[in-house]
Amino acid sequence: DPGSGNRDSRRPAPLGGAAQRALRPSSRALATRPASLGRSAVNQELTVGVLSCDLFTITFWFGGKIMFFRVRDAINRALFDLVNQEIKNTPPISVNKGQLIFLTMLQKKDMIMYLHAIKSIYRQINEGQIIIINDGSLGARETELLSNHISNFRVVDAKDVSCRPCPQGGTWERLITAIDQSKANYVIQVDADTICCGSIPEVVAAYKNNRGFVLGTRACREISLCKELKDFHKGSADSHVQTVAEIRLFNSKEYNNFRYVRGCSGFSGFPRGGGDRSVVENFSSFMSESIGGKWNEWGSEQVASNFFISNTKDAMVLPYPKYANYDLALDMSQSAFLHFMGTYRFHKGVYQQKCKSFRLMA
Fold it and tell me: How far is CA 228 from CA 100, 180, 223, 330, in A?
């Protein structure tokens, strides 16, 4: 989930122990070892007929090791953009300012995705300012496209957002901006790879009642005291920064009575007046002292975002699976909001189908 400032996957880090078993999805292997060398060393899967966006796997066999290239993602993105150009023919957003801000950190290659994301959610709430954080890849052409579809918006350059003493980069600029803007407005952080495919009264109510919200997961659906989560990662050998930081948090006396939920920062609600930078600055300093340079790795922002929102007044986890990260085990019949994180973004063309359904209603 997201270029220089927005990786291609914003999913929570792998779980351990019982939590891992509860969340473990079934999956299809991306590639298998070729039977022999030569021409069979390149395996291509192409289903152009339905343009499903689950299109291309290229693998090379070298000395018993399979190397995966980013060709698959590049082709999937190109085809996704090609078949979803009709978003440019949908009505533009007429911005109605309120005490609400939609905030997105955006990269050039996510423009078509973003237009679906912002138009679909704005249609449900029909008010709010729009702020876009330029990860450094947006230029004049992208700004012109945005101007054609959003009547009024503001662009903030990521390089102009100082996050110190927190880490710089890794979407920390987004979190810091969200907190700064939430002093006077409710802020909804919405990733470009999301789509609103139904009514979202819980989000509207959270905004109206000034309650923060977190996008939960199958295994994590409520906010708990940190001291109640000590065994959450029991038995885990995972070295991802999110897991390492959470283990330290759940076992620290300093944060025993603080609250937390392992959510996804791809869709988050920051209540007006919920706190200032000092909350995450102190938290970040604690983590830097506790786990060292690990805290500077990609994923630390998600931990800090979950922590910040969880400790605001009356914070909530959005009901799952009505609000969910798409995966292979998800029953989408109940979903009104989906986050198509990098892992399964183009699987079986589901994302494309949801985008098409929105355009037909726009």
Answer: 33, 30, 10, 27
